Amino acid sequence: MYIKDERIDGGRAFDWGRTSDYYAKFRDIYPEIFYRKITGLGLCVSGQNVLDIGTGTGVLPRNMYRFGAKWTGTDISPQQIEAARRLSGEAGMDISYYAVPAENLSFPDSSFDVITACQCFWYFDHNRVIPLLHGLLRPEGRLLILYMAWLPFEDGIAGASEEIVLKYSPDWTGAGETRKPISVPEIAYEYFDMEFHEEYDLNVPFTRESWHGRMKACRGVGASLSDKELAAWEREHWQMLNERAPERFEILHYAAMAVLRKK
């Protein structure tokens, strides 16, 4: 399913389904501290019913399943949901997944204690989604927005990778990240109060293969480039990695989280 949004990549169409295999293999990269920060706030733990919107291949539910919450995941891409079901099933996890846009969620009101949105919140139509999420949450429920990105101006390999992506996808808005709190739209404050936010650095380990796969799975590459463009990007990116990167290395990232409490 192709998505086109003038706010993103200059309106260039992208389809997460094209990257599902690589996404499943190479985007499960959040370090343990990423999950412990969440549970340290008493969120996504035993006794809670959690909805993960924009779940992709179910990275967040699958990694946090061990903490005891009951998880449901939704995503606009049927291919991503298919991968999420397969990976969860192989791990023996009881997680429900639905292929549905966040704007069209139809669960009963007050169904969830926590709603999570990891690496996806900016994709949604906030004027439609924010009131909907407010209704789906129980009293005092929390909306947890999560994000992690590499820092291209401080990490040489990340910066070099970005330059190659921008050569083929010059309007890619995923480039040039710097540390900052998660951006929360004004409408959210009509329905939620900001309870907590945090930003912190972390190093994420990669091999040449896993970093190449991580980059290929991003929106500006595998989800949007033509087959010809993708083949050229692959050749150039591999050449850069073979020249500049050791077999194993770390990429400097920052992570951010925002906890909003239902009014």
Residue stretches low in confidence (pLDDT < 50, at least 5 long) are: none
Kindly provide the radius of gyration, computed on alpha-carbon positions and rounded to a whole number of angstroms.
18 Å
| SS content category | alpha/beta
In total, the number of strands is 7
The quaternary structure here is single chain
End-to-end span in angstroms? 35 Å
How many alpha or pi helices? 9
Major sheet details: 7 strands, mixed
Percent in helix: 25-40%
H-E string: HHEHEHEEHEHHEHHE
Task: Please report which band the strand proportion falls in: under 5%, 5-15%, 15-25%, 25-35%, 35-45% or over 45%.
Answer: 25-35%
Strand order of the largest sheet: 3-2-1-4-5-7-6
Q: Which word captures the global form?
A: globular
Characterise the protein shown here.
It is a single chain. With 263 residues, the protein is α/β, with parallel strands linked by helices. It is 34% helix and 25% strand. It is built from 9 helices and 7 strands, in the order ααβαβαββαβααβααβ. The longest helix is centred in the last third of the chain and has 18 residues. The protein starts with 19 loop residues before the first helix and ends with a strand.
